[in-house]
């Protein structure tokens, strides 16, 4: 990091910690430092959120913010080469340069899905490839923030000595990587015998302390909470609202990539509902600071096997529905009791948004169809694409609408899903577009005949 330090800008940002703090989402009045080890409101138990006072941020005009963020988007100057830290004043302004733990995440490609859009009847279709990231999912955006705050806490003599989470997939991969980058010990809790080697291998490779417990996922959560009780181990699970601050940059980044134009729709696959809450938080801040004058409509896409938020939407958000999540190919969103429910309801209501669901067959078909136009979609992105098709068929999304689908993970993390699809072995899926390799003798005439058959 020495060259990065050498190219540090002369002026460090304001470190006024009073300008941003944790507060309870239910409105309890206490303010808590983001450098305190605290995850929920001590009065009512609700989630916390990082609140940013607008006054210091209003010292720059909307145009000045746009210029600043544009100017940092292509730089290698520490830490602005990161899509998250290019917006540091809006994320965690009080972090010191030397405590930021970043592998220049974010700034992922937002590309025009020309052929897929034509085929679906929405020519202005765009894919935001958040999975083109260090550990292969959008979880990196939140983890850079959480681990940076922990590093600053530790540099000030906090009792925290390690970070921990219970997760079978993308969260543990991201936590293990960022912790290893910072030299902070990470502990990953998993249900023994229920997790594949492929799901485990990233934290294993990054040197995390991986503990397989004789219990299920909820049992692991209980143990993590008990172990983190004495504040020596910092909890990195979804209830930790620091991660939202990093994830909220996705919405801002999309608008910046559109030269500050707002799309009509953003579709995102959801489980614990942190990501859709984060999208809304980013858009709200842009509205409050005058960078944009309207909001896109947000669509939360759920797998039908784990769709409590869809059920809640159907009942008009009268009450939170909790289900036992069933097995789904989209295993990163296999959540029956979403942590960030209240925040997500606000995101959907305030943006006139929609919640829709997709079956296993629908998500697999949508992913395979998109792959035939050059993508390599993970099953969660398949859920979002299947929901896109449904909303087009329902006439909700119109052919002239500008629509963004957020691809949350890299397809290469889910090769079993791809192989199973093309071998037509996935449960509850009838492969519509299987394309297995064709085994032939090494005979030019046979080969020519086979190619001719396909091209005819
Ligand atoms: C975590 C995750 C999601 C869901 O995000 P939530 O914040 O839990 O709603 C979607 N897709 C992928 C690939 C994920 O890892």
UniProtKB/TrEMBL annotation:
Residue numbers carrying N6-(pyridoxal phosphate)lysine: 139
GO molecular function term, any single one: threonine synthase activity
Highest taxon of the lineage: Bacteria
SUPFAM superfamilies registered for this protein in UniProt: Tryptophan synthase beta subunit-like PLP-dependent enzymes
Enzyme Commission number(s): 4.2.3.1
Key words of the record: Lyase, Pyridoxal phosphate
Domain Tryptophan synthase beta chain-like PALP: 101-408
GO biological process: threonine biosynthetic process
Alphabetized Pfam families for the sequence: PALP
CDD domains membership: Thr-synth_1
Matches recorded under InterPro entries: Cys_Synth/Cystath_Beta-Synth (IPR050214), Thr_synthase-like (IPR004450), TrpB-like_PALP (IPR001926), TrpB-like_PALP_sf (IPR036052)
Cofactor(s) this protein requires: pyridoxal 5'-phosphate
Family indicated by similarity: Belongs to the threonine synthase family.
Protein name stated in the entry: Threonine synthase
Organism: Phormidesmis priestleyi Ana
Source taxonomy: Bacteria, Bacillati, Cyanobacteriota, Cyanophyceae, Leptolyngbyales
Gene: thrC-3
